[in-house]
Amino acid sequence: MSSPISSALPSLPVPDDQAIAGRPAPVCERHGVAKDAIAAAPNRAQLWICPKCADEDRSRATRLAHFDHDQKTRAAEQQRKQADLERRIGAACIPERYRDYTFDTFPNTDERAVVVLQRMRTYANRWYEAKKRGVSVLLLGDVGTGKTGIACATANQIVRMDHQTALFITAYGAVRHMRDTWGRKGKTEREALDDLLLPDLLILEEVGANVGSDAEMTALFEVLNGRYAARKPTFVLSNLPLDDFRDAAGSPRPGLQTFLGQRVIDRFRDDGSFVVSLDWPSLRGARK
Asked: Which CATH class is domain 90-278?
């Protein structure tokens, strides 16, 4: 006996195998070939599928699976390279405070800052071209103008690309990394220098502060010159102006050009490298 529910449902036609067998198969509008009949579910009309469409679907699924696998493999390799870089150098990579910095979160709407941000955004968007040419950047500005934030926003975009690594380190930290090898066994000075030549992008902060002896200046020159020779982009961040200046008391002070030397500065005028001046007031407290 049928239930009240089943008796209330309208009856659906059951496919007639004999009728299907005698009826020509529909043709795929895309490929112009006859479709194949597939088993119909009870009380459902006959279903057809184009064999070429089915093959394309299977190929597409395979390609997507391979692409997903390749993406995961590349991401894992990039994480491994960055972790290895951090292990080799120590706690010298992008500081926690700046790891979420982007061009959109930079806390300044000054018209001059907008121009600088757009230039650095373009640099990041064209990173592979900049990397091939070895384009480096001097970021000069007073304390608190956002040099570190802009450099890290650029680096944060770059390290999200395939297999790209970045190292953030103070000039003193870089020199100390090499100086620790002086007169010691184990890692050689050449190996320490190679550590600083390894990353795709090197950010040297506080250039012009706390580094001054002849040996330290030679070590810093080796880093900058080595990366220039290898066409490895470097960001140099400094509170010093490019030219010599007088402090608030009127005393003469060396600018970055004097501090680093003309040979180094000339390297930042080659291969499309450029100088960015951050000449706006301090941003301290602007970012919540």
From this structure: alpha beta
Condensed to tens digits (0 to 9), the pLDDT of residues 83-118 reads: 776 665 554 578 888 888 889 888 766 788 889 999
Quick check: pTM over 0.70?
Answer: no
Going from N- to C-terminal start, the domains of the chain cover 4-49, 90-278
Q: In angstroms, what is the C-alpha Rg of the chain?
A: 31
For residue 271 the two structure tokens come to 């291969």
Amino acid at 137: V
Closest CA to 234 of 263, 195, 262, 273: 273
Residue 214 and residue 175 in contact, taking contact as beta carbons nearer than 8 Å: no
Determine the Cα–Cα distance for residues 143 and 112; give it in Å rounded to an integer.
17
| DSSP tag of 34 | B
Cα separation of 62 and 207, whole Å? 51
Rounded to whole angstroms, the Cα distance separating 261 from 67 reads: 49
